[in-house]
Specification:
The chain is of the alpha+beta class. It is 67% helix and 8% strand. It has two domains: 248 residues, no CATH class; 44 residues, no CATH class. Helix 1 crosses helix 5, helix 2 runs antiparallel to helix 3 and helix 8 packs antiparallel against helix 9.
Length: 322
């Protein structure tokens, strides 16, 4: 931020919460470092395997140890991507708790907001500053981490030892959804802090509300875009990277029978399905081509909820504070 931007309540907000803001920035730096480390570690393991003249699955006894080391290193690098994804998925909950408790509720609980309001700062401007400072940092950091995440995930070991694009934590770390998630966490945390007005309680409520909203959207995600269905001989089509939502067989009357009905005896599952009247296979799925439609629809919902939460926060401010 420039010196002009950091004036009045904005400067105060940065000063009051500088350690938390520095912590958020440090988390972003650590996330990028983990992702870069994952990529470099993976490349180093592949280079060591090639230098030894070995390949994974080689029957040459002299390659066994080298191949095992390669696999271990690649799995370690993959885990770094997974840990970062979990951190990205938890970020909105942490932001909500931070905004609700230390930023909003603590000032209301202690009454320190009154000092700002006696310095020619209106309640609306006071709240705008509380929102603007973390939002600016989020708008700066989250897209960078998300872009680095995509680079590391799409070209590194998470593709060879797969983590799938539709996994909840992975999907929430790619594209534009991470930024929308973070903005939702800020909006919900703000309105909860204004309503609850008790620091610790507000943090818990904000975390629970934000987590519930995100979990609900993750549950609804498969239905945010129409699924594709292949049947019969079309099943031979490649559906690599597909998000399979259901499969089974279709009866002569058009009724669908899922494989779960015969899952208790997998060795005779197909005979079981045919015995139930199945005549043709089917698979419902989201291909990888649906990644961006799903991302954009979910982002629209998240941004609408974030805007609604911000609007509600200002309405609560005007209604409940003197």
């Amino acid at each position: 931020m420039t010196g002009v931007a950091l004036t009045g309540p904005y400067w105060v907000a940065v000063r009051q919460h500088r350690w938390a803001l520095r912590g958020l920035l440090a988390c972003a730096v650590v996330a990028v470092a983990l992702l870069v480390t994952s990529r470099l570690w993976s490349d180093s393991a592949a280079d060591a395997l090639r230098a030894a003249g070995c390949a994974v699955g080689s029957t040459n006894p002299s390659c066994f140890q080298t191949a095992d080391a390669y696999t271990d290193d690649r799995w370690f690098a993959r885990h770094l991507v997974e840990y970062t994804a979990l951190g990205m998925a938890a970020l909105p909950v942490l932001l909500g708790a931070f905004l609700a408790g230390p930023v909003i509720a603590r000032e209301l609980e202690s009454g320190t907001y009154k000092m700002a309001w006696t310095q020619s700062v209106t309640p609306t401007r006071w709240l705008a500053a509380k929102l603007a400072v973390p939002t600016a940092l989020v708008l700066t950091c989250v897209p960078v981490v998300s872009a680095v995440f995509f680079w590391s995930w799409s070209t590194g070991p998470a593709r060879d030892f797969p983590t799938y694009w539709y996994d909840t934590a992975i999907f929430s770390s790619l594209g534009v959804v991470p930024l929308a998630n973070a903005l939702l966490g800020i909006g919900l945390g703000t309105v909860v802090g204004l309503v609850v007005r008790r620091t610790v309680v507000a943090m818990g409520v904000a975390a629970a509300v934000t987590g519930t909203v995100l979990a609900t959207l993750a549950w609804l995600r498969p239905s945010l875009w129409p699924v594709e269905t292949v049947t019969g001989r079309e099943l031979s089509l490649r559906v690599s990277d597909a998000w399979v939502l259901g499969n089974g067989m279709v009866t002569s009357t058009g009724e669908r029978v899922g494989w779960e009905y015969c899952a208790s005896r997998p060795e005779v599952a197909r005979d079981c399905m045919i015995g139930r009247g199945g005549v043709s296979d089917f698979v419902d799925f989201h291909p990888y081509a649906h990644f961006w439609p799903l991302q954009l629809v979910e982002t629209g919902i998240l941004l609408a909820l974030a805007a609604l939460a911000a609007y509600a926060a200002f309405r609560v401010l005007r209604a409940r504070l003197p």
